[in-house]
Batch of 4 targets.
Target 1
Amino acid sequence: MTIIPLDHRFTRWDELLALILASFASMNGRIDPPSSALALTAGSLAEKADAEIGHVAIDGDKLIGCLFLRPEADCLYVGKLAVLPEVQGKGLGKRLVAIAELTAARLGLPALRLETRIELTDNHAVFAAWGFSRTAEKAHPGFARMTFVEMRKMLAPQIRIV
């Protein structure tokens, strides 16, 4: 299995979309509002990769995982962290988060940030086991109740040799 950055040579957008939709499928009917993954297209994923820092995990010739990273003022946002259901629980998600940590360090950002739906308590537990702490509960526009949890992982300060 290899994890590679998404760049101009990547052309497998339909496969990447299928991977994300398969990974997020268990949320369908469990979360409200529905996942933003349902609005993705192959074209919007290509645009996302141009605007953000994307990585894909490939096993043989099969796409099995991905994540997208977006630098913010005080952290690196981790979005669309997706692992095929048949590969979940085998450490790939943690390896993808390690890529996010390396990217944040390279960018001089002290933390990772992600959002997960309030209903997905199993995800909360996994992210907590990976070192993330709950920092806020928020609501999507138009919702009176909390719909998602924000979590952060503070990273060890980097020593820079000049």
Note: The helical segments are 13-24, 42-51, 92-107, 121-129.
Target 2
Amino acid sequence: MTIILDELLPHQAPMLLLDRLLDYQGNRVCCETRVGERHGLLLDEQGCLPSWVGLELMAQTIAAWAGMRGRERGEPVRIGMLLGSRQYQSQVARFAAGERLVIEAECLLEDNGMASFECRILCGDLRCAEARLSTYLPSDEELQGLLG
């Protein structure tokens, strides 16, 4: 079965930054993207993606995980929130044009919509960025309260 990311994430072009879901198993998810046209608004003059965009790639990978969990439960795609990150470290200043990035996330703790994820971005065999992200997946009622 092919999983279309548009069906898992609330993001739309031009802010859907991932190309595809590679793997999903329980508390782990793995996605990929190739630096290029999809990232148009965020690319520098050389067509490279600044390393700080890695946080958004990690957050969207977590959103894909949440989308798969919702799909398993028969729930619609929901909007989640990135609450913060800890110790974002990148070994590179930018991700090169044309480079294939593999983004992995593992849920370490989940309670009442709050979750903590250990994330990493791989460029080939090199671990080029990592961080721990905290997220919140509000109920529809909570979301309306936050947005309304």
Note: The first strand starts at residue 20 and ends at 25.
Target 3
Amino acid sequence: MAESDTPTPPGLLPDTVHQDTIHQAVKPGTALLRLETTRSRAGVLDGAWWPRSRDIAEELPALITALTEHVGPITRVGLDATAWRGIPTRLVIDDRVVHLDSFPVGDDTVLVTRGENDHFSLLVVPPDTSADAARTAMARAVHADNVTQAAQILIANVPE
């Protein structure tokens, strides 16, 4: 099997493709997500998400479904209202109510709550980012010893 034939694990970005290829290869409603692979959660960020648009009602269900598979039921999501179009106060996703809160966290971060008080902080890669820049930023965000804030990761890895 050639290296290019090696399947990419679900939720991870392939190593050598262009942004258009990724967005065409990913079915609508699929989240491009990376999570830190250690249980320590000692880094600043717990994961990274690359939505394809700023329409939260369209993008969030796939993220919540993916997160629920890996970390359990999600109860709340905190986002910056200036970064997303039309944030409702709640969505029903996979037959569960997920509450959405608007916080001034910036367009580079989403806060996710599992249960009552277990919070996950995810880097949000802008939708129009190239595949190479997205892959680099996402990998940096999930590095176990990462102490760099989301905004700084994007400044360093995602050209404007």
Note: The chain has four helices and seven strands.
Target 4
Amino acid sequence: MFIVEETIAGTDAVQIPKQRGESLLDAAVRYAEERHWDVVPGTWLEAADGVRGCSCGDAACPVPGAHPARPDWAAQATGSATVVRRMWQQQPTASVLLPTGRTFDAISVPETSGFLALARMERMGLTLGPVTLTPDRRTEFFVLPGAAAKVPGLLCRLGWSLSSIDLTVRGEGEFVAGPPTRVGCRGAVQWACRPTSANRWLPDVEELIPSLAYACGRDR
């Protein structure tokens, strides 16, 4: 059964960041070294008058401490562990952002739909990529790049459309927040299905979309 991982243990963990007890810097370096993912530091949380707000200064920031800190963030993203280490040494509390559309795209669905889909995929014996669980109660499934272009057609063949179910695709020019990034006072991004040596090769979105569409349709 798929469960949210609080720690990552076992011989298949390939030294991927733990849910607890690991700094954002260490997590960012390991994503670059072990998964060859590009990473970039985002905003961070700052305390002011006893309240933790986003470093961007917007009191109404929708994702405090978990969005790009500069307009050229995509150009700053890197897979070099040396550069990553230097970036986070300058701002150790910066969020860990993972650009999509490069080594992976991400399919985002509501948490309840995500866990229904995970259970269905497990019964079908599908090999999944990493899956995150966000504090905003979304599950994000990592798949091969190019999913953004494929999903509308795939959904159409299944009798659905992007406007009819709560399913979005993060592709080129977008990002997801990587664990253990915190989003304001809502909590931290976690792994629902952690990165391991078994899921180093990501699935194509075509393999997962039937289960995801079914779960989203049930959850409407």
Note: Confidence is low (pLDDT under 50) at residues 1-19.
